[in-house]
Amino acid sequence: MKSRSRTIGAGSVIGEGWQKFATFLTHAGRQQPGREGGFVNMPVERGSTVVFPTVEDMEAQGVHAYDHRLVYGAMGNPVQHRLEQVIAALEGGSHTQVVNSGLAACSVALLAFLKSGDHLLLPDSVYGPTRRFALGMLARFGVETGFYPPRADEATLRAHLRPNTAVVFAESPGSHTFEVQDVPRIARLAHGAGARLLLDNTWGIGAFQPFTHGVDVSIQALTKYPSGHADVILGSITVQRQEHWQALRRAAIELGACGAPDDCWLTLRGLKTLAVRLAQQARSAYELALWLESRPEVAHVRHPALPGCPGHEIWKRDFTDASGLFGVELVEGITQEAMVAMLNGLNLFSIGASWGGYESLVLPTSGGLTRHHEEGLPKGAAFRIQVGLEDVADLKADLARGLDGLSS
Fold it and tell me: What order of strands is seen across the sheet that includes strand 361-364?
């Protein structure tokens, strides 16, 4: 997919870059009807056993386990294969493996490229369950994990690399503290050390083209924006090089990682409206972030598209748009307890840990984050906002009532 123009900045509208993206998604993954017509959406095919007319036919089909072909239910199904084609094109890769969750996408990708005795380097802002998987299961398998500051300069990052570093992981921006990482620089240093770069690109879907910036493996929680309706758990792993696909696909087969047909179908359906949903959510989030910056109760708004946000210049250089997820840090003197009471009293924002759906959510991000480095941690009470499809004026009014209560 080609990069898209962007009109972003003070006083401008965010989300205009989604237009060509919308055309791609509207036509990608559709059923191709014959001359006599047919439904525009492909059907759901559910099954485990694939039967063949002869043993020879079964053996001949078995060699296609790496080719997105129907071999056995646990190796993929027709709607999963179609979804994989769409995600690969969306991410700018050659092959995608769909798995049963976003965390599974992180864990399967790490298992595919790590072995006992290897060193894994994670950003300190990494998704909490990914950190837990690395310090738990990977540690039991003999993989050592180190953590680097997400906005580390070249010298600092180089100092964290070791001779046995096999994988450097990135997540840009971090999903709680929103540090934008210099992915091209990280890629250059990782490759110079003989390591592969894996990126959790969930925030940047459609707005960040991973393989043009040196990424080897791009991970998506399809649970979020692609499905878009808070009713699917699914993940994807995309690669561009054939040797990476061989390693990834082998790991997926060995682990039995796949996507359920209904979840894949729902995600394909969600992708049709992804561009218009993201454009709306990005515009609303940007407007809400600008408004929150003006509130006296707010110390910092962590939205990469805001000029004052750390990492904004990298975001402006590398991204073509933004999403609807950002962070808010309150001024000194507002306690964690007072913030929690405010969040509990909101009417339009539900309290929940996910994001990317149609509904607006809030989640506390202070007091419970695990870090090896102090850099990036909020100094005061902080929370995360996922902006849904509600009218932004209504969202402002709801937050204004809560913030006014803090002031009083």
Answer: 298-302, 325-330, 382-386, 361-364, 350-351
Residue corresponding to tokens 């071999």: 71
**By the 8 A CB rule, do 218 and 249 touch?**
no
C-alpha distances (whole Å) from 142 to each of 109, 117, 316 are 17, 6, 39
Interatomic CA distance for residues 11 and 169, integer angstroms: 35
Q: What are phi and psi of 99, to 5 degrees?
A: -130, 180
Residues 283 and 13: beta-carbon distance below 8 Å: yes
Residue with tokens 């509904």: 359
**Is residue 336 packed enough to be buried (19+ CB in 10 Å), middle (13-18) or exposed (0-12)?**
middle
> Kind of pairing, strands 217-221 and 235-239?
antiparallel
Per residue in 105-164, pLDDT (tens digit) is 999 999 999 999 999 999 999 999 999 999 999 999 999 999 999 999 999 999 999 999
> pTM for the complete prediction?
0.92
What's the CA gap between 4 and 272, in Å, rounded?
Answer: 18
Are 200 and 169 in contact by the 8 Å Cβ rule? The answer is: yes
> Which helix (H) or strand (E) segment is 20 a member of?
helix 19-27
The count of other CB atoms within 10 Å of the CB of residue 310 is 18
User: Residues 270, 229: contact at Cβ < 8 Å?
Assistant: yes
What gap in Å lies between CA 144 and CA 370, rounded to an integer? Answer: 18
